Each structure stands twice: as structure tokens, then as C-alpha cells.
Amino acid sequence: MAAAAALQAIAWLVILELFRGILRWGYDPKIVSPDVVHYADVATRVLIGHEWPYSAFPFEYPPLSILFFILPPVRGTLATYHHWFAAQMIAIDAIIAVVTAAAALRLWNGLARPLAVAATLAVAVVAMGAFAIQVFDGAVALVLALAVLCLAYRRWTLAAFTIGLGFSLKLMPIVVLPLVLVLARTRRRILWALVAGGAAAVVPFVPFLVHDEAGVRSGLFGFQIGRGLQIESVAASPYLVADVIHHGAVTVTVPPGGSLTINGAGTGLMERLAPLTVLLLLAVLYWAVWHARAALRSRPESVPLAVLAAILAALCGNKVLSPQHLFWILPLVALCLASRELLPKIAAGLLLCAMALTQVEFPGMYYRQIRLDPTPLLVISARNALLVAAFALAVTAVWRLRSADPVGAPVRVAPAAEQEGA
């Protein structure tokens, strides 16, 4: 675990020196990103103005996200806030590395694979680039890493609680909860997992719902529901390719405070179908999970693959796919690349390439996206093709587990007391 933290430190030295001093690839320490400006504004309103999110001002994130906005000091310059926020996110990346290494040590005997996981995670951080210190999505990756660690120790209630906190942080991690319920097996464990996950998901909202329920509905859920088809979403890729072939097939809208959205023939339908698409992809995955449940229970090293597939289902099906969303899967990619099986390794390799392409197109090509220049459109489409391919491989790998001999593979079996843990 110390090696994992050290590798993260090296990764960030590489990022801050290489990208700032040589490439300047979308990163300038003298420029504060719009995301950090927004976080600082929220923190100032809450801490100094004593304003209530959702009711006093629009707020598009779940309530736990506020914790990461208010930790850096706000009584100073914006540049000072930016530096403290960056330090906070680098520290979170180091914690992710330690937690992921702890999960790897639990999943595999020996040090070879845990060290490979730590090295892969460092490479993945470099592949994503300096953008990681400008958004709080590393916190979502930490939630997923903690959930995997809990699942590795067969602590179903704690895993569900962690996933519930993820919902209160950025909604999407809740797609992993059904996996916990399948693995928990007995009614008693399932019930406790549901109670813990539900409490962690709902309780952080309660003060805001009591204060202004309408504000939460319109501010958070209204904002998310009202978003259009984002230019970087998987569903937008056919439109982007069509525009490359015949310029003018789509137009771009730049909503205030939102992501670039595209408009064209049928984009409204694709936007409305996005929730159903996510549900369909999750149904396909959990159909495979259900048939492979015995192998997943007896071979916990395959659990990170199922978690990765669930998050990929949400990313591929949703109408919004922002660059920072790929931070969520960093620990899962590292764990899957260390797998003994081939398909998880290939899926993880494709995702590393997708991360690198994400860094190429954003933020360096952001304004070229607005102009619908062909190069960023093709880069986005290629990245999304890799995401879809990785999801297909992950689901296939989960499905193939159903025929695996649950006792034939070398696995680390937990003690009886842990196997029966909540």
C-alpha cells in the first residue's frame, strides 16, 4: 500500500511537470477552471453567505458533494482556493491507490498482482492528466474503490452503505447496489444491505428536503432531467460521424453552466430514450451476473469486473458523458488489468486507451468541439467505441463465469466468520 501511494506521488510529479512545463496540454496553473470557479462560488455562498443550497441558489449536485467544495479555504484569492482544491484531489487519489491496493491484497495471494494494480493505477492517472485536480470526481472513484474493498471482505452491508453514499455524492454509483444484493444471497443479508444502502442514499438529502423539497426536485433532479444530448455521449457519436461526412447534420448548443449539447434529427428521441437505454444495458449485465452468481461468490477476484461493467452500462447509456466521468473507473480498470482472465485484461486495456483519448479531446479541443471540427468529433467517437467495446467484453467475461469451476480456480477463501459477515 505504501508502494501504491508512492507511485501516485510519482504520477502527479509527472503530470504537473510534463503537462505544465512541456506539453501544456489543456493545463495552466495560472488559469482557474470553470468547475473550480463554480465550486468556490458554492463554498463562499454556504460558508460566508450562509445560504442554503437548492433553495437560496440553484445546485445541480447531490448534497454530499458540498463537503468537497467547502474543505478548501474560501477566505482568500480564487487561486489559493484552486491550489487547496488541487491538493485535496491529489490526496484523494493517493487514498484511492491505498484502498485499491488493499483490495488487491485481499483478492490475490502474493505481491505481484497488487503491485501491478498500483502501477496500472498510476499509469491511468497520467492517462487522464491534470484535469483530475479541477473536478471532484475522484471522490466517486474513492467510493467505488471502498465498495470493492468491502465486497472483497464480504461485508455486504458496509458495501451497500458505501454505494448509498455514492448516490448522495453523484447519483450514478447506485447502479452497483443490485450486485451487492445478488452476492449477499440470504434474505437477512439482503435486507440489511437494502436498509444500509437506502439510509446512506436518503439521509443526506433529508435536511434539504425538509427545508425546500421543491428546490431539490427542480434544482438537482430537474437540472439532470432537463439536460440535452451531450456532444460526448455515446448516443451522440453517430451524429458526430454523420456531421464529419456531411457538415451541417447537427448543431451545437452551449447552455449556461451546462455541457455542450447537440441538436439534429432524432436527438430529442435519443435524449428521452437514454434512461431506458441505461436500464436495458443494466438488465443485460445483471442477467449475466445472476447466471454467474455462484462463480462471483466463490471467486471474488471477478467482482471488480462486474462493478466495472455496471458503471460502464451507466456511462454508455446515459445522455450525459462528461470527461471527468472516466475518473470513476480508475481503480476498477487497475484491478481488472491484473485479472488472470484474458477478457478483463483486454477490456481494461481498451479503457486505458479511452482515457488517453479523453485527455486528447478535452480540454485541449473543447472550442474545436463547439465549431464541430472533424478531428475532435472523430476522437470522441473513437473513445466512445472503445467504451462500448469494453462494456461488451466485460459483460461477456461475466457471462463466461457461469461455466467456470467455482472451486477449480485458485482463490483466497475468507475465514468462515468473514464469509458470514453482514
Largest sheet: 2 strands, antiparallel
Q: Percent helix among the residues? A: 55-70%
Work out the count of structural domains. 1
Q: Give the number of helices.
A: 19
Distance between the termini: 26 Å
**Mean of residue pLDDT values:** 89
Strand numbers in spatial order across the main sheet: 1-2
- Strand portion: under 5%
Helix/strand structural class: mainly alpha
pLDDT < 50 runs, ≥5 residues: 21-26, 406-420
Tell me the overall shape.
globular
Q: Please write the string of helix (H) and strand (E) elements.
A: HHHHHHHHHHHEEHHHHHHHH
What does the radius of gyration come to?
A: 21 Å
Say how many strands there are.
2
Please write out the topology:
Blueprint lengths: L1 H22 L10 H14 L17 H6 L7 H30 L4 H17 L9 H15 L3 H15 L6 H8 L2 H16 L3 H21 L10 H9 L5 E3 L7 E3 L3 H25 L1 H6 L4 H15 L12 H8 L4 H20 L4 H5 L3 H27 L15 H4 L3
Antiparallel strand pairs: 1-2
Can you tell me about this structure?
Helix content is 67%, strand content 1%. Helix 14 (303-317) packs antiparallel against helix 18 (374-400). The model is unreliable at 21-26 and 406-420 (pLDDT under 50). The protein contains 19 helices and two strands. It is mainly α. The chain has a two-stranded antiparallel sheet. It has helices at 2-23, 34-47, 65-70, 78-107, 112-128, 138-152, 156-170, 177-184, 187-202, 206-226, 237-245, 267-291, 293-298, 303-317, 330-337, 342-361, 366-370, 374-400, 416-419, and strands at residues 251-253, 261-263.
